[in-house]
Specification:
With 97 residues, this protein is of the alpha/beta class. It has 4 helices and 3 strands, in the order βαβααβα.
Length: 97
């Protein structure tokens, strides 16, 4: 059942958490199925209580890493959405230009 590619079509990536292995797993198991990808930035509850400016720079680096991995699979994208704070929009624009 785990080898059914349709089970792996919904890819949700939280750039605030390190899930590199999960992304690779989803991309591998989805085979050539069209993917619905959501890139988000959701901090954990305890992180919301503190000013984590230095953490944002780490999240930006992670965001770039995920985009670099995903762009090689662009032919399989059915839908791509982002739920990121304003600072990440400039990262995305710099990445695609």
């Amino acid at each position: 059942m785990l080898q059914t590619p349709q089970l792996w079509m919904q890819v949700y990536i939280n750039v605030a958490q390190l899930t590199h292995n999960l992304l690779n797993l989803y991309l591998c198991r989805s085979k050539m199925c069209l993917l619905d990808i959501t890139l988000s930035q959701c901090k954990l509850q305890w992180e919301r209580d503190y000013d984590l400016a230095e953490c944002d720079s780490t999240v930006i680096i992670e965001c770039k890493w995920y985009l670099e991995q995903l762009i090689t699979h662009v032919r399989c994208w059915r839908e791509f959405s982002m739920k990121l704070s304003t600072i990440f929009h400039s990262v995305i624009l710099n990445f695609v230009n």
